[in-house]
Amino acid sequence: MKPTAPLRPITDDEVATFWRDGVVCLRQVLPQALLESMAGPLEDALGGAAVTNLSTMGDDLERHAGAVRLVDENVRAAPVPRGHFKAGTDHWCDQPEFLAFATRSPLGPIVSRLLGSAQVRLYEDSVLVKEPGTHEKTAFHQDMAYFHLAGELVCTTWVPLDSVRAESGAVRFVVGSHRDRTRYKPNMFVTTMTLPDTIGAEVPDYDDDQPEQIGRARIVNFDTEPGDITVHHARTIHGAYANASATQRRRAISVRYAGDGTTFVPVAGGFPKPHHAHLHVGDPLDDRASPLAWPRD
User: Fold this and answer.
1) Distance between CA 71 and CA 177 in Å, rounded?
2) Can you state the angle between helices 12-21 and 107-115, rounded to 10 degrees?
3) Would you say 237 and 124 are in contact if contact means Cβ atoms under 8 Å apart?
4) pLDDT at position 39 over 90
5) Rounded CA separation 99/102 (Å)
6) Residue ranges under compositional bias (Basic and acidic residues) (predicted)?
7) Which of 24, 28, 149, 190 has the highest CB neighbour number within 10 Å of its CB?
8) Could you give the CA distance from residue 287 to residue 271 in angstroms, rounded to a whole number?
């Protein structure tokens, strides 16, 4: 993949929105050909060992651990086949197309502009697919709770390969939540059950059945088309709707980046990454752990 620039410049207003709200939707910044080129690699990833069926995992947690799955009852009651929520991470380690997408696409310079960071490194990528009829909502969570990182300049890009609406599983963001310095526990994504042995507070319940909580927060989602992306700060609390559509998939690739001054700090109880094995607490990220996405040679 040849290095490419965004289809248009990122404006000062968009940078200000990112830092004010903790999230910004950037319209038509990625070329269609780039997105189409990732459809096949995404399908390959879905068939690999790095992907988990979170719907099945939620069933197991409910059955054996007493967890309560976060489901949209209207979707569960609809006369359509049940879909599944599948997700995986670190596809760049095994699939060169994902490495190129993260480090040679417009995402690197976009993140550099938003963060105001001279250097941008790939931390992690993820595929996030909700098939039509997926009952499960995504629990509100904070990405930084999962990341083995310390630093202010850390963010997540969310790149849809399909048209996305609330009905088909749009991501929901708690505006301004990145300004909260509270350390939150990571959860299991389809339930609020937290990972064992992790440290921090429980994420506030912003779900639809908690109107008193929603009343104290502004929650936004964006209708997006392929070519649009959202970028949110790693401390921004967010979740997602179930996929109520009977026909529309919700395929997305999420790429997480670290900017200047970010260091390695393992999360207690978190999942270690083999490519971090050589790092010690406080080490800066290097090419082996986090390939450079910007600047490019």
Assistant:
1) 24
2) 70
3) no
4) yes
5) 5
6) 280-297
7) 190
8) 20
Q: Which CATH superfamily is domain 12-263 in?
A: q2cbj1_9rhob like domain (2.60.120.620)
Q: CB-based contacts of 125: which residues, under 8 Å, 6+ apart?
A: 89, 90, 91, 92, 98, 101, 102, 253, 254, 255, 256
The pTM (predicted TM-score) of the whole model is 0.96
Looking at residue 134, the DSSP 8-state letter turns out to be: B
In tens, the pLDDT along 195-205 reads 999 999 999 98
CB 158 within 8 A of CB 171: yes
Q: Would you say 67 and 188 are in contact if contact means Cβ atoms under 8 Å apart?
A: yes
Domain boundaries, the chain: 12-263
Amino acid at 6: P
pLDDT given for residue 136 in this prediction: 98
Q: Which two tokens stand for residue 215?
A: 């009343």
| Tens of pLDDT, residues 162-206 | 999 999 999 999 999 999 999 999 999 999 999 999 999 999 988
Own/partner long-range contacts of 7-11 (Cβ < 8 Å, ≥24 apart): 7/31, 7/106, 7/227, 10/110, 10/113, 10/114
**Cα–Cα nearest to 135, from 197, 64, 38, 53:** 53
In the predicted model, what is the mean pLDDT of the chain? 95
Q: Which residues pair with 69 in a beta bridge?
A: 191
Residue 269: CA atoms inside 13 Å, Cβ hemisphere, count?
A: 13
Reported in sequence order, the residue ranges of the chain that DSSP labels E, i.e. its strands, are 23-26, 51-53, 85-89, 120-130, 138-142, 149-150, 154-160, 171-174, 219-221, 229-233, 237-240, 250-258, 263-264, 292-294
Question: Using an 8 Å Cβ cutoff, are 153 and 259 in contact?
Answer: yes
**36: which 2 tokens?**
């189409």
In angstroms, the CA 239 to CA 256 distance is 16
